[in-house]
Specification:
Hypothetical Oxidoreductase Yiak, Chain: A, domain 1; Ribosomal Protein S8, Chain: A, domain 1; Wheat Germ Agglutinin (Isolectin 2), domain 1; seven-stranded mixed β-sheet; three-stranded antiparallel β-sheet
Length: 383
């Protein structure tokens, strides 16, 4: 059976699927602590509370460490701009509006999304330990980084964790021409034995917007089904998607079941925007708009598996092992489960002594440090 230890060894001989479009062998490396310091300094330089800056910095570091570069440092300037313009605040704290033993309704009070997310998932975890399940919905929130960060918080406590958020309208539903849905990510983290876990963290679009932005920054074409141009036609040019076009739902076109991706997008919208009474669908502010408050809706769920049949972790590990032990279609690539690519990437980062960044990303961070008058990130040669 392919164990967690076996999967981690793959980092030596198997390319990480999260980096399959790029070669990171010669990228500069930055330690996790240094990335966090830099993000924190950038945020506090524009008036963010230190504790709020810490919450945000932790999410950004985890995104890059796990290989989701679209949601790490790549997003820092967006948060800086939100605080600098005052469209997101840092002088308030999330507040519980109503609750039952198993549920809570939270007003994020327009603070940074990771602050709201940590607050809500901590409540969900507490309620799950007391009542078997904790279901928390928030309004008045903002972009909160990778959804998996919050689901993993619950999994680390031996619980099933789920996290959902609606986002600005970027996705064009099947047969439509205009974007009305967000990428609306879904995350589920389920614990197995000996530190193993299943961690699903996915957008309900074919690809995250940040990935399209990174392709444009590196002047690379995007694969089929990632996006459409302003006329609703599929394109391989990332600039066409970013300038008046839109992303495609999971599955792409109708003939490849894009309507299922649209359905998942609506599922998240119901759990988040509709249930919380926050903005939803096309009513959400456009991406990087700093003239109106985002008022995003988010949903956080924690479930105690011991409320049901005992032995959940063992069965979870057995299922993951069955999957990993399947004969691969390509001899040089093992079968993985959700969370394995991220574990491989984290092992690679540990082996190199930090997170590897593309030279363009390092330059972007350097430019940002000059604008904000903060100490730039210190890079190091990979081990």
């Amino acid at each position: 059976m392919h164990s967690l230890r076996h999967i981690l060894k793959l980092s030596k001989r198997q390319s990480n699927p999260l980096l399959r479009y790029y070669s990171s062998e010669n990228w500069d490396v930055v330690s996790n602590a240094e990335v966090k310091r830099f993000a924190r300094d950038c945020m506090t330089s524009v008036g963010t509370k230190p504790e709020h800056a810490d919450s945000l910095a932790e999410v950004l570091v985890q995104a890059d460490y796990r290989g989701h570069y679209s949601h790490g440092l790549n997003r820092l300037d967006m948060y800086v701009q939100d605080i600098r313009t005052g469209i997101t605040v840092s002088n308030k704290e999330p507040a519980v509006l109503k609750e039952t033993p198993a549920t809570a309704f939270v007003d994020g009070q327009n603070v940074l999304g990771p602050v709201v997310g940590d607050f809500c998932m901590n409540i969900a975890i507490t309620k799950a330990k007391q009542s078997g399940v904790g279901w928390v919905v928030a309004k008045g929130s903002n972009h909160y980084g990778i959804a998996g960060h919050y689901a993993i918080k619950a999994s680390d406590e031996g619980l099933l964790g789920m996290s959902f958020t609606n986002t600005s309208p970027l996705v064009v539903p099947t047969r439509a021409k205009k974007a009305i849905l967000g990428t609306n990510p879904i995350s589920l983290a389920a614990p197995g034995n000996h530190g193993d876990s299943f961690v699903l963290d996915m957008a309900t679009s074919t690809a995250a917007l940040g990935k399209i932005e990174l392709h444009e920054r590196k002047q690379l074409p995007i694969p089929n089904s990632w996006g459409v141009d302003a006329h609703g036609k599929m394109t391989n040019n990332p600039t066409d998607v970013l300038n008046g076009g839109g992303q495609m739902p999971l599955g792409g076109a109708e003939e490849t079941s894009g309507y299922k991706g649209s359905g998942l997008g609506f599922l998240v919208e119901i759990f988040c925007g509709i249930l919380s009474g926050s903005t939803y669908g096309p009513n959400i502010r456009r991406w990087k708009n700093t003239t109106t408050v985002a008022n995003l809706g988010q949903c956080f769920i924690a479930v105690d598996p011991n409320s049901f049949m005992p032995g959940f972790e063992g069965r979870m590990s057995d299922l993951m092992g069955i999957c990993r032990n399947q004969e691969p279609a390509e001899k040089d690539k093992d079968v993985l489960v959700a969370g394995d690519p991220e574990r491989i990437h984290m092992k690679m980062c540990d082996d190199r002594g930090g997170i590897p960044y593309h030279p363009n990303q390092i330059q972007y961070a350097t430019d940002l440090s000059e604008k904000l008058n903060v100490r730039p990130m210190a890079t190091q040669t990979p081990k």
